Amino acid sequence: MTDSLGDVVPIDLPRRFPEHSLAELPAGTLVELTGRVFSLRDASAARLAASLERGEDPPVPLAGQVMYAVGPSPAQPGQIIGSAGPTTTARMARFLPALFRAGVVAIIGKGELHGDDMAAFVRARAVYLAATGGAGALLAKRITAASVVAYEDLGPEALFALDLDAFPAVVVIDSTGRNFHEEARARWRSG
Fold it and tell me: In this structure, is residue 45 part of a structural domain?
């Protein structure tokens, strides 16, 4: 595996992320994700975390799962999904520890995470992947299937199953706790 925005690493998700490959993705690695992920938005994250805290089974299996912080727009005629750009992950950070305890191994989103928000990833040895904000229409073209699997009453914040094909992202926080945003900023400041 390479880091620091080198070659793109293809990641096949149908079998979910095996633990050993997560540990091999250093911060700064460009990836293309192919396979199924579940969406995550403020309302669905709150509902899912609350049900997990009550000891209830989740509506979808979470062990080894990747979740994408997105609230897709409705599909236009002939489209699979509307705009599907990442949403700010920090807004959902308080729900992530429950999801990590349930086995979620990676979150795709946007924005920086620091302090306690980043610490949740480090404790769980989970990976934070960033997708490009503002590119929702382009990212939607990397989604080959979309269906609501739970919490339909939440509309765009429902829990969706999304099938990705070569979906571009970058590892921002790796399983060892390296933070690509912080490292890149330090390199920029030093020279």
Answer: yes
* Sheet strands (E) in 49-115: 66-69, 106-109
- Cα distance between residue 69 and residue 88, in whole Å: 7
Enumerate residue ranges in the chain where pLDDT < 70: 1-6, 14-20, 22-23
Please check whether residue 162 lies inside any domain of the structure: yes
Token pair 């990747």 is found at 66
Domain range spanning residue 37?
8-15+27-190
Burial readout 14-33 (b: 16 or more C-beta within 10 A, e: otherwise): eebbeeeebeebbbbbbbbb
Is 1 inside any structural domain? no
pLDDT attached to residue 23 = 60
CA dihedral defined by 172, 5, 72, 61, rounded to 10 degrees? -60
Please give the model's pTM, rounded to 2 decimal places: 0.92
- Cα 85 to chain centroid distance, Å, stands at 11
In a domain, 20, yes or no: no
Per the structure, the count of domains in the chain is 1
Q: What is the pLDDT of residues 154-178, one digit of tens each?
A: 999 999 999 999 999 999 999 899 9
